[in-house]
Amino acid sequence: MNSPNLESIFHALADRSRLQMVERLSNGPASVKEIAEPFGMALPSILKHLKVLEDVGIVISQKSGRVRTYQLDPKNLMGINDWLEERKKTWNRNFDRLGNFLIESSLENSDGG
Q: What is the pLDDT of residue 2?
């Protein structure tokens, strides 16, 4: 699978049910039945949501006998983390500039300038 873009990953996570499935899988691998338990959905609907998550590389699955087990694939989630870290650096630089501006303005005003 090619690396999905962030829009695809965010789109997949924008659905509340899929986000809850990811939260469930953050505790460890789970079978389809275990993932489906808290949802009042038919199994085909659960599988459809899991397919969306698998298509964008958020989860991976393996089948052993009749049981399919899903787990998180952290490498694509790290892409989200990298994107957020870049946004955070930009915001921090802007806050630093604002802080410096406010300090300089305060000093100028206290000098009567």
A: 46
- Site of tokens 């300089």: 104
**Helix 43-55 to helix 6-13 angle, to the nearest 10 degrees?**
160
97-106 pLDDT, tens per residue? 999 999 999 9
- Per DSSP (E only), the strands in 2-111 are 30-31, 59-64, 67-72
Select the CATH number that applies to the domain covering 6-109 from these four: 3.30.70.260, 3.40.50.720, 1.10.10.10, 3.90.330.10.
1.10.10.10
Going from N- to C-terminal start, the domains of the chain cover: 6-109
Q: In angstroms, how far is CA 13 from the centroid of its own chain? A: 6
Q: Which amino acid is at 81?
A: N
Of the candidates 72, 78, 27, the one whose C-alpha atom is nearest the C-alpha of residue 50 is 72
* Cβ partners under 8 Å of residue 16, min gap 6: none
> What single-letter DSSP state applies at residue 3?
P
